[in-house]
Design goal:
290 residues, Purple Acid Phosphatase, chain A, domain 2, four-stranded parallel sheet, three-stranded mixed sheet, 9 helices
């Protein structure tokens, strides 16, 4: 009899625990205030993206930009916007966007007004999406790419490297008559860069093989910092007849001595695979940044 009573008590206790667990598991977020019956909203973030945004709101501008270690100059690198000025379109925590990129640079300039900086693009800033009916760039792509040129002019980019994705639109921009128009309206095209992309004939302009940009003022204390940029790309899937894409490693190797002699810092903007970038670094120890 005693054993039966003990068993009944254990079963009832286990049932109560299970019921409590079910009620706890099934309850909605938020706690119930005693005596009021009102639900208090949960203060916990619903997902990792909300958590990141909450943390960002608590971070000061100085915290977002990092500690000031006494640096004298800065170079901002961007790229792969694929002909779009908007964010990536992800429903949560979207990335990219020219406005966000420019806003970050503006905040940097406000935070460090005495630090000179350069703003460069590593490539794939044009879209190369083709209309399957014509085999040429889609009409909306051409229009969007033109807006990218205008945006880059407004943003005053210092150097813009060309990738193989950019060449179909470049064939339009660098056709002799169009190139003259762009130089007059959006002179950023004169800062398009590539050491291994050359036009096949006189009907198209050539991008600069390298560029020397000079930084002065602020923390440089009257000195000039000369930064040499060399740009290269893989041939990728480019099959156009307007340009020829030569070996990027050979192009860099031939230019490094000339650029090194004129610059304090040599930077290669390389739209290449990781394997080729590794080869580039091994073959060119005189290069400072890739």
């Amino acid at each position: 009899m005693v054993r039966q009573l003990v068993s009944i008590v254990l079963i009832l206790a286990a049932g109560a625990l299970v019921l409590l667990a079910i009620r706890s598991f099934g309850s909605k977020p938020g706690s119930v205030a005693e005596g009021t019956g009102q639900t208090v909203p949960s203060q916990q973030p619903k997902d990792v993206f909300e958590f990141e945004r909450a943390q960002a709101r608590k971070t000061t501008l100085a915290g977002r930009l990092g500690e000031d270690d006494g640096f004298m100059a800065a170079i901002f690198f961007g790229g792969d916007i694929l002909g779009s000025l908007e964010v990536c379109g992800c429903p949560k925590n979207p990335l990219g966007g020219v406005a966000r990129r420019q806003g970050y640079i503006r905040l940097f300039a406000e935070r460090y007004p005495d630090v000179p900086f350069l703003h460069v693009d590593t490539g794939y800033f044009f879209s190369d999406r083709v209309d399957p009916m014509t085999g040429d760039l889609a009409e909306d792509v051409v229009v969007g790419n033109e807006w990218v040129v205008r945006a880059y002019e407004h943003m005053k980019l210092d150097v813009v490297n060309l990738s193989y994705h950019d060449l179909p639109q470049l064939a339009r921009c660098f056709q002799s008559k169009e190139f003259r128009r762009h130089v007059a309206e959006t002179p950023v095209v004169k800062r398009f860069l590539s050491a291994n992309v050359r036009s096949r004939g006189a009907a198209y302009a050539n991008p600069q093989p390298y560029m020397i940009r000079e930084l002065r003022g602020g923390r440089l204390n009257g000195r000039a910092l000369r930064v040499g940029f060399i740009g290269v790309t893989e041939a990728g899937n480019y099959r156009g007849r307007e340009f020829v894409v030569s070996d990027p490693l050979v192009a860099v190797r031939s230019l490094v001595p000339r650029v090194r002699a004129r610059a304090d810092l040599v930077v290669v903007l390389a739209y290449l695979s990781p394997e080729r970038i590794e080869s580039l670094a091994r073959e060119n120890p005189e290069v400072d940044v890739i």
